[in-house]
Amino acid sequence: MPLNSGFGELDGSADEKASILIVDDLPEKLLVIETILEELGQHLVVVRSGGDALREVLRQEFAVILLDVNMPGMDGLETARLIRSYRRSAHTPIIFVTAYADELQTAQGYSLGAVDYILSPVVPEVLRSKVKVFVELHITQRRLRAQALERIALAAAEAAQRAAEENTRRSNFLSHATRMLAGSLEADVGMRRLLELVVPEMAGQAGLRLFADEQPPDRLLCCTAAEPPPALLDEPGEPREFGEQEMAELPELVQAVLGELEQFAGGDAQAAALLSARFTVGAHTVLPILSGNLPLGALVIARPRPGLDWSLLEELANRAAMAFENARLYRNLQIEIVERRQAQARLLEANQRKDEFLAMLSHELRNPLAPIRNAVEVIRRLTPEADARVAWATDVTERQLRQLSRLVDELLDVARISQGKIALRVETVDLCAVVAQGVETVRDLIDKRRHELQLSLPAQPVWLQGDFARLAQVVANLLHNAAKYTEEGGRIELLLSVVGGEAQLIVRDNGLGIDAELLPHVFDLFEQGKRALDRNQGGLGVGLTLVQRLVELHQGRVSAASAGSGQGAEFRVMLPATVEARPAALPPTQAPAAPAPVPVAAAACRVLVVDDNPDIAETIASYLELTGHQVRAVGDGMQAQACAAEFAPQVVVLDIGLPQIDGYEVARRLRALPATADSLLIALTGYGQAADRLKARQAGFGAHMVKPADPERLARLIADWQLADRSLPQPLQLMDD
Predict the structure, then answer these.
(1) Which helix (H) or strand (E) holds 297?
(2) What is the CATH number of the domain that holds 578?
(3) I want to staple 210 with a disulfide (CB 3.0 to 4.6 A). Which of 215, 516, 656, 657 is the partner?
(4) pTM
(5) Which residues carry this modification: 4-aspartylphosphate (predicted)?
(6) Is residue 398 part of a domain?
């Protein structure tokens, strides 16, 4: 048998070879031992002293050490003792090789951890057999250690994998829970979804209560399942049953704790901190649902699943708290939005009622103004040569009547603009002519208060697209405002120019000025500055509001400026100018002629006056009789029909707002009568919008006058009609607003 045939099983890869340390001071002995052990196929390390042996022991691990006892310097026994002192080699087998060994030396060697003694000369088979045993043992131990490390690493990997899977499952569960809870901003939906997450996966029964601002405080939503499933989220579990149960169905102790928790819903930080973690009451576990230090409710757990991860449940409760807090905030926001909408609706309704009231007030005020105006004209005609006091009284009455009519018109205009009922009659107008008309309107007030009016107008016309009458109203209101708030003898300036393609109109005065706190509100409706108790400036605070809204209807803008009280004021109007050429002939409204004197009637007309207000009917009738006409007055439409058939009036002055049948229907019936088929029908009404004039024309009226109508204008209208060629179609200009 070959020498290595019995040791082939020790051969293997370099990683599996063991190291054998041979220590001897004689080279020939080292050579013999090395030759014998080469058959083992292991790694042989040969050194010749104890010091070299110690260095090798520190450097690597050995399966067995062959150590000569008798060596110069450090002998084998001392070397063995030092080898045993190292942690790595404390249990390494040591075989002493010696030429002789007495009992004392042998005992000392075994005490140092020697496993055997071999006498020289060595027997090769014996040496190889003994070394082989320790080499095999070392390789086996090393393999076992490696396997143990592999098992440990595998166990660690499996544990890490289980932890990762658990973390993944936990994360997936919490992510799913967050989506479910955040999927609705309704608290009731969120309550049901939270209980669906808890039962039956975590517990067989759970109850949830939100405090008074979300749910009635005496109700509890419960969820029950037969038995929890064996693993979290692995099985769907038993069907769940929901129910709203009375608080009395819970143990009294749980009920008391929930009541105590609710007491701190006001945000007591110290009390909330004491109840910030879960606690048990009998067989129930209570998890407070907190948003910061604010308790929102509580989750009660009964029949928890064995091995329940309470930290997961607490995290679920935290996420539920965020969802319920969002639901609470959303609910409060919805309530706030509803309240705001209700408030806005109330404001809109109040504003609409205000506009309707102003419109109705203005209309109703026209009725008493009409007979007063008519009566003044009657008095003036009946007493043409009356004494100075009568003339003075009629002049005062007429001036105050005009002032009152202007205030009523302003109220009505503001109401119409607010309701979107004003339609501009846009045409090409010269703003210089507009200014002239506006100045003429307020000339009496300026002269009365002895103001110095300075006009600065361009030499060329300033053309723009607009409503001549409404723009003149803007100028008049600004001048009227300046005159009203400037002391007698003050100065008013009006400047007109074109700047950057825009017409710029400035009205400046040295009057009372505008306080800084009032300046941002001068264009607000009914807003006025401080005035004395005598209210000698008059007005309702609607003039500037009307200016702003009329300017805005013309796509312009208006601003106010003042250095303060007593420093005067300046109003600046900017309007888009146009570069169109000047028309060949100015519209009649741009070059108004002075009113012609009332013509004497060409011939006496039969005039029928129909108005349910006796004062209006009688004063109009009296004035027209003074101009030479034959007049009758009636109070309603039925009387008008009966009188028309017998009286055959040539002119009918007809109120629109009549009882029983309105003026439009009366006009249609009169047009159907042979006696009045060709008569002049004049509508007399408090409504003067374009739609009102169109409706009047469609009903058969030939003229339209707004109360309080000027009696002189009415008489002139009749005279013009008498002189017109009535064989031609009646022209539209007879419609007068």
Answers:
(1) strand 294-304
(2) 3.30.565.10
(3) 215
(4) 0.43
(5) 68, 655
(6) no
